[in-house]
Structure formats: C-alpha cells, structure tokens
Amino acid sequence: MIDVKPPRDLRDEFDPNPDPKVIIMIVGMPGAGKTTAAGYLARAGIRLFPVNEIIKDEIHRRGLTPGFESQLRVIEDIRKERGPAALAAMLEPRITAIDDNIIALDGLKSPEEIAYLEPNGQIFVLAIHASPATRLARLRARGYRDDPKTLEDLEKRDLAELQLGLGDVVARADGMIVNEHITKGELGALVIEFAHEWFSVGSLA
Predict the structure, then answer these.
(1) pTM for the complete prediction?
(2) Cross-strand partners of 126
(3) pLDDT digit string (tens) for 133-191?
(4) pLDDT at 39 over 80
(5) Could you say which DSSP state residue 6 is in?
(6) What pLDDT digit, counting tens, does each position of 68-118 carry?
(7) Are 6 and 43 spatial neighbours (Cβ–Cβ below 8 Å)?
C-alpha cells in the first residue's frame, strides 16, 4: 500500500554535506504530470528550479507573445546562440549559488544539458509517463490557451519536444513512474521514494 500522507520536510533527514550534491531531474511528455511530481519535491523541502522560468523570462525580454510557439522559438534561438546546453548554462549559476544538499530540476530537454550539469552533482533522471489519451485529457482540463485540443495537436507537440532531445533524456532515465490510474498523492509518494533512494546512493558515491 502506498503511503499518501502529505510529504514531510525531507531536509532534516538528509546529510547536510553530501559529496556530490544530488540533482533530481524530472522529465516527461506534455501532460504526463512532471510539474505535479516536481511540486511534491518542493513541498517536501527540496529546492526546485523550473527551467520554464528561464524561458518565460527570455520570452518577456524579447517581447514575444507567451505560449508554446514562443517557448519553442526561444529554446531554438538560445541553442543557436549559445550551444545545445545553453539552458543548463543559464541555470547553473542558480544551482551553484546555494548550498542545498539535494535539488530538483523541472524542464530540461536534452542529453547535452545533463552532461553540462554533471560537474555540479550526481544527476538522477526521473521520467513521468502517461498515455497520449490521458495526457490530452489532463491538458484539456488545464485549459491553457495554446494547449493541444486533439490527439493530432498533441502528436505535433510531442514531435516538437522530441526534436529538442527529450526522447533521449527519457530513454536514459534512472527511474520511471507510470502516472495512470493513481491519485496525485500516490504520485507524490512515489516521487519521494525515489528521492530517498537516490539521496542514499548519492551520499555513498
């Protein structure tokens, strides 16, 4: 039976000075539930760095209309300007500026970004998976203006994400949660289990 109690603050349970730092990277296709999963780590006291915040800042700075098309354009432009690991490079100062023993990232999309951040800690990739039908239902319920409305729209969005390298990141995941027929609380409990397991491994590295 999965424990679905609200997540406790994990920071007091972790060695305050592990070597290396543990970095949990949450990945998944649109609507899989990765942001919800990452949110449970944040609620448990783990510092969360949503990569989307960097992208939104760039959209605003460049005067673009918020939405997926602008996000895609910004990612592609940044990679052309600064290389395939550009988003990781922009995120790195925020990671190195804190002394937290374990952190979480939500939204990186390529193996090059993982490789760039590896000197900063031991990275564990957690993939959140759900079927296209389930993901589409969630995106419809979310109701964002530019979210996919049909399976065909979702397939186009998926293809765009895969072309950014997301499929290669999911393929190298250290763990996976199938986010189907479980509650949000059960999803959160599974995420916390992985955090405990990986922190133990990282502390012994």
Answers:
(1) 0.87
(2) 26, 175
(3) 999 999 999 888 889 999 999 999 999 999 999 999 999 999 999 999 999 999 999 99
(4) yes
(5) P
(6) 999 999 999 999 999 999 999 999 999 999 989 999 999 999 999 999 999
(7) yes
Cα distance between residue 73 and residue 55, in whole Å: 10
What's phi and psi for 59, nearest 5 deg?
A: -60, -45
User: Which secondary-structure segment (H or E) carries 23?
Assistant: strand 22-28
Of 86, 126, 84, nearest to 102 by C-alpha is 126
Number of residues written out for the chain? 205
Side chain identity, residue 91: L
In this structure, are strands 47-50 and 122-129 parallel, antiparallel, or unpaired? unpaired
Q: Closest Cα partner for 46 from 124, 102, 123?
A: 102
CA distance 133 to 70: 25
Torsion of CA 93, 96, 101, 104, to 10 degrees: 20
Q: Output the DSSP codes for 114-125.
A: HHHHGGGSEEEE
Q: What is the mean pLDDT of the chain?
A: 89
C-alpha distances in Å from residue 137, one per residue of 54, 143, 168: 27, 10, 25
Confirm if 107 and 91 have CB atoms less than 8 A apart. Answer: no
